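Long-time lurker, finally posting.

We've been working with F-box domain-containing protein (Aegilops tauschii subsp. strangulata) and I want a structural starting point before designing mutants. I don't trust myself to interpret raw outputs, so I'm hoping someone here can both generate the structure tokens and explain anything notable. Sequence follows.
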Amino acid sequence: MISPFVSKKRRTDLSLFRFLLRRVEQTTAMDETLATVLSYLPPPSVSTTASPSSSSTASDDDDRINCLPDVLLRNIISRLPTKDAARTTILSSRWRSLWASTPLRLDDAGIVPTAVTAALNSHPGPVTSARLSSEHLAYQEPDVLDSWFASLAAKNVEELSVVNGSWPAECEWRPPPGLLGCASLRRLWLGLCQFPDISGLASAFPSLQELGIVHCSMQDRELHAVLPRCPELERLAFVLTQDYPRYIHIWSGSLQSLVVWRSMVREVHLDDAPNLERLLLEPIGGASTHVKIINAPRLKIFGYFDVGLHQLKIGPTVIKDGIGMKVKPNAMVRTLRTLALKVQFGDEKQVKLVPLLLRCFPCLETLYIKVSIPCHFIIIIVCACAC
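Top reply, 14 upvotes:
Generated this for you. Predicted structure of F-box domain-containing protein:
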């Protein structure tokens, strides 16, 4: 509270200063959130700093670059930022054909939306990767975005990352349904947006191997509509999600890795995951997750399981505290080799549950325990067990 003995002008200045300070803190937090989201996404497939130099030590009579074979020049072009790669077309007719015959790696960083449209319209394809994350993305006319994703689909885009760079000003932005019409995708990452309307969902994503949802709201029905259409999906990640999805039920014969990282998810059920090897969890403060393992015969890595927050059910058996509880064979996961737990050793209930959990994984080789008393540190225990 500002003292009444301070002059009115002084009080006004202090109030303004505090208001500006709060705005700076809010802006800093927003920038940090955006930077965090971008750090979880696949890195750009092209250089974001390289740019052709306007000067050259070689004379016109000693043009060593033009002496290089086409295959090497295409390799160089593919590593340039999108705007610089397109600029090579003005050098000569040879360079025009080189750019057109090099698979397009599109990144909208540092270029205006009209340049994205021009690149997609002028390049015949295919498109190896596309990363759309500029602050202009959420403000584009629907027709423009529809044309972008239609062009990407027609040119068989393989990797696609879409991030709402104008977040949080447009926190409810939803990419157009046409995004889900890119049936050629092998990798898809979405961030800081709503999941696209599934009315545009392709009948199948026969090649999709990796799907990442970062600080993105994906309704349960949308998740369970997408997964059956991905017969080759190997990696599925949910990072920093808050509202949805709430229930992740896995029925997939191809999935090998499931990541739920700092996300508020109520249930993770491995209903039928015959090839799943890794279940990676990182709980967010106070969020309880029910983990149920029904059919995951190849599960090797599991954690972090928060003993105080999470609940575990293996087959029909709920693993709960109780010194006299016996672990039946159908409540054991004999394939598990690495387990990570979070335990508060000051909580007697949590401590008693640890030996019971270990009996559920009789072939364990490596155990990680993260404890919070007396301070945060990690204990690594390596144990060799014979099944």
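Before you design anything, note these points.
The longest helix spans residues 8-40.
The helical segments are 8-40, 70-78, 82-87, 93-100, 113-122, 142-154, 220-226, 348-359.
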